[in-house]
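Reviewers of the previous submission asked for a worked example of the structure-prediction workflow described in the proposal, so we include one complete record here. The input consisted solely of the amino acid sequence. No template or homolog information was supplied to the procedure at any stage.
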Amino acid sequence: MTFYWGKNVTILFDFWRTNSWLSYSLSLLALFLASAFYQYMEDRRVRFKILAESKPASSEPSIETPLLYRRVIRGWSLARSVTAVMFTVNSAIGYMLMLAVMSFNGGVFIAIVVGLGVGYLVFRSGGDEVLVTIDNPCACA
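From that input alone, the workflow returned the following structure tokens.
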């Protein structure tokens, strides 16, 4: 298989065929938006997971006794379930984008890669990951 360039492409399903430049352009726009949405959902999932795992200030280990802190194994909670559902949805979107790239159409490839890049720039490049690491008193974080 090699990349090809042209407006005639089948994307994911038999009914999603492009045979004109307008349908091809609209399909590329849809794939671009789906790629950016993938990055948005990944950002929301990570943020929700951080919020769900944050503990009240009283349960945090003190800096003097970090090794005496015993982590409590939590059971199934609503927040954990929601995080799992968000992960599932995001995985499904990611695999669908991968399968769309496997159409080997150059325009589809470019639309998805640029959509992922723009989505990362807009939704995930804020630098919040550094703040999470700095706030953690554990040296192994």
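The longest helix spans residues 21-53. We consider this example representative of the routine output the project will generate in years two and three.
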